[in-house]
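Let us practice reading a record.
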Amino acid sequence: MFARKGKSSDVQASISRFTDLNRDCVSRVKHLKILLDTLTTNEKRQLLDEHSFETFHLVDELLLVNDVSSQIDSAIEAESGLWTLEQVLCLAPELVGSGWQRHAIESLLKKAVYPKNLMAVRKIAIRLFLVFYQCLGVYGKATPDLDRVFQCLLPFFPLKSGENAEDVLNEYCQSSGTGDWCERLRNGPIKSTASAAQTSKERAQMLQVYLDKFLEYCTRETVRIEWNDEGKRQECANFIIDKVIKLYMGECFTELETNGVDVFGGWEGADEQGEPLDTADPVVIARYWLIRWINNIASATHQPTNGPPQSAHSSLILYRNALFSSHKATNVALTLMREAMKLPLACSNVTHKVVNVLSSWLLQYEIPPFVASGEVSIERCSLLLANILLSFFHSPYLAQSGERHSSAISIAFAILTSCKQLVSHRIQLPKPLPQKFWSELMSGLCAVASKICHQSDIFSQHVSAAFTSTLISNVVIIKAVRRIEIDDDVWDEVHEVMKRGVWIPMAEQWAAIVNSVTRALILHLAHIDIFSREEALRKATEVSQTSRRQAIESANAMEEPRKESSEAGDSMSSTNTISEDNVFHDTDDITNAVTSWSGDKLAWLQTWRRVISLVDPYTNSSAHVAIDCMSLTIKNLLSVNLHPLAHWLACRLVTVPPILLPRCVPALSAILNESSVRRPPPLLSANILLCFIRLMQSKEQSVVPAICGLSANELSIVAPRALEHLPKMLQAARTSKDSKMSSNSLKLFAMLCSSYPGAEQILLDHLVHTDVSENAVVIVNTLAILIVQKAQIDLVLSALKVIETHQFAMRLIPLFCSAIATLAQFSSTTLLQALLRAASLLRDERQRTEIEWQMVKLCVQWPQPQMPLVIRGILADRHMVLHGELVGLGGQYPIRGFDVSRWNSSGSQAPGSQATSQEDKTVYINRQTAIISLSRPTPSKFEITSRTVVARHIWDLDTLETPRASTRHVTNWLRKEALKGKKPGRESQGILGAMDDPFDDLPRAPSSASTGTGSLGSGALGSPVEGSAQFASMIETSRRQPQPLGSGSGTMGSGPVGSGPTPAFTPNSKLLEWRSLSASLGFVPLVSQVHTNFLRDLKHLDQTSSREVHKVAVIFVGDTQDDRASILSNTSASPQFDDFVSELGWEIKVGRGHEGYSGGLPVETRAPYYADAESECIFHVSTWLNGDVQQKWKHIGNDEVHVVWTENYRKVYTRETIATKFCDVLIVLEHVGDKMVRVRVDTASALEFGPLFDGALVTMSELSQLVRLTVINASRAYRLARVEHSRPLRHREEVFCNEALGHMRPMALAQSINHLYVPTI
């Protein structure tokens, strides 16, 4: 009979026991469960069909015998009976639906649904009644009396009639039959007789628990009914949907029929605001759960990953088909979704779910069935969905959100995000929308935005920025990206929203969108992308978009975990909602939508002008945001040469109220600074300057830096008014002790003070009171420039008196002295007095040395009566090099007309560096302070070389053949005294001592005649050694002078007999001259002995620089050049640059003919060169260097000081333009007129130098001289900042003393004469 899973004998035994009416009920139920667990579905249906009597008998016995209201044991048996009845209803629906045992089943259900039964029994009874009700409904046997029971199954459900559902159900359960129940219904509403034993909160919780289970049973139990015809199941769903709409939703939503949505007829329903209801109101609870139920059905499309089980999902799909198969049910569903927007904020959970469903339909991630079927157009549907979503902002609960404002904000963000994504992300919709829809959408958004953003509550504060972002970005994308022509009224409506808005975040969001629209405009007009973070922004948006879409798709079937206990809390207030979407602040839809310049330029220009005009910079509370935004926009437009648009914006800024003018200064200043590229209209320039003058009159400090950046012509207009107020502003800044304000005013005054009478005194007064070192440096440099420009010699000492009492005197004194160095051409004496005073004040040895170097330089270049004072101070400090510089060079050398560039002749070859020969012998003489070398490189050339710690000097000696003058008595007397020789006891003093002949001290050897006589006569001197010793002793003790040889006797001669006398030795005239000169100069006793490598030591000494050397890079930057390759590739420059370079020094060519510092340049390279008594400077000019970019960079990149002449007015030159780690000082020169140059100074470390300072204005006539002095001082300041630094002559002094003098040894007199008087001489 059955396809058994177990043994046939066991099945048959269970059947026999189940059908045995004499067995107890518990045993029969047990065997029935065994059978149902064992048999298949068809076998179950067959079993109950064949044994329907026994089954119903068992149910009747279990239910009618026991009391299920209070006794637990009886309730357990009653549950067994209900379970059995459930099997009958689910497995034999055709039998039940045809009316079989209807009255008996109804009687059993009456007892089960009795209101006073236990909750567990009632829940089961409600579920069985739903199955029974559906079965009868399919066959058309569901009578109105059962409809009434169906309506009152839930306790405390609100009925229009005001009846209590509990009382109605109680009357039904106590009625004797159908006739009796119908009679009671005809008698009118059933009055409540029970007392209110429960509180309103308890009744609300009870209704919520039953309503949740009831709606769940409605969908779930339909699937459990086993019909022979599967179509009957769909009929059950249609039946339940219809009854729930009529009997439940009709009761809760009173205007469902009169004001409901009719999507098929084009009626959306009137927008009426009802009175706010309490969250615990039964109507609110019923609406919440009914909306939630209908929304879950409408959203049932796909099986979610973590969604409900398959059976529950299949039931939702079944009911979804039933819902959208009926026009009435579809309209009701849409009406309930509209009503969800008006639920209390405690019900935000279901509101979020409805928003997700509507958003998925609006964004066309899913096409609604009534649209897919073609019954409703996509335009009508989309408008309806958008209006339903926006109806949330008309909710009466928003004005009193209180602690629930976060829920309201979250829903608002979800709605606005959907509207924003529809426009910006869904560019290619499956079903395109017409132009009318977009206009209607924007009008609806403007309407609700105008209402919300005008209010001053916490909800409006939080959503105002989101509204602004949605409105403006949507209208921009619709107009410029989608290229849809929308009505101009939409722009007016958006402007009205911004005008009525009271929140600053609205303006801030507008500013962000303006920046994006400006970027898109520039991209289309100039083909330049000004955003460097575009890719990062796009990725962030894509992540946000993906997560948002996943949330929409998964929220359709998202269920909250609910407690199974009947005492569970209000699940309506659950916080398990979609988190707030910060897409309004974290993403940039416009930037993501515009990735190229393929759009319509005119459309973007029109859109940009519309958007930037939405917020005015005049009277609105957010005017400061508008000004800042416009200022940034002007900067971006100027960077790509879109000057007309920038000028148009600037015309709006010059008309702002005076109180807002300070915020406009940066943008207006940028307009004027770009005048070298494209001049603004004269009227605009005049208005900008007028604004600056007004700000100066009001003593506004923020305008001061802007005035500092004006051109020469513009400064000439502003300067008179500015100078009227600058002294007062300086006084105010000094009083307020605002260092920044004081620095700006001081900088401007320093620029303009040359035309202000009494500027020097104002600067001195301000210097006395300033306690900021940077300000003091600017004042000192300005004073130095003024003194030099005006040649105010008398002001030098006055300024020095003020500086020496300042708290930063030790830093300012060297700075001031170095900055006024060029004053020597007017009055070197006054400058020397100042330097002497400064040297006496300084305690730091290195700083004092720098001052002494300046003094030596003055004394060398100009004769000074105060030279003894200078020498005394130098000797006190034991500066041998300075003494040598001053006395040696200043007192004797160079002679008049000697070129100062040849003072350091390290480039020439030392005379002793050539290989010596037998005929070329060098004699070295140690004078302690000098090394004198005597050499004869050729027979016709004789050189004397003098090497000191200062330098090396060479003389060529020639014999002049000139007749001697007539003999005078003094000359005769000197010759006579010289011929007499030195007398015993005679002092070697005075001129006679100086003229003594050194040969007088040499011994004379015995004559041959004497020697011969001695040997022949006595033989006493026969031994040569003995004779030599006697001769040496005689020479030591003899004071005899050599006498000419006279005639001797024949016996005394050694020659032949009769030979004449030997004539006396007569010296050569040249030898006599040389003996006289060398004796006069004192060379003979000072001849020294040197080692074989002494020439190498002298070469090292000669190559050691005697002056400080500097190398400076001078770079020319042409128009539009902004990288190293293009800048260093220049081989020519502008005439102004060439004039500037030509005045930095004199042009030299490295190699032969240039014996000064070469700065590492290769031979034949041209360069400007400058030298004076203390330093040399060579300039590496980028346009003069030979080779390619890399070869030029080897020289320029290693320089410590860079001077940049820039003619690129579009981009400011910075360190990053040509990056190098060696550039410690950067000086940028910018033209601000035909004859004026602005100086920008940037240092890598804290260095103090002058006279030029950052922001200084200099005329072209004095630029080169001031730049040269500044770069030398800057290079020297950089070196002085290092502890191990010393002047070059310090090193030369060490080389001179240790390596040269230290290797010279004295000689014996005979050896000295032998070296000094060689036979060739």
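A brief commentary: The first strand starts at residue 923 and ends at 926.
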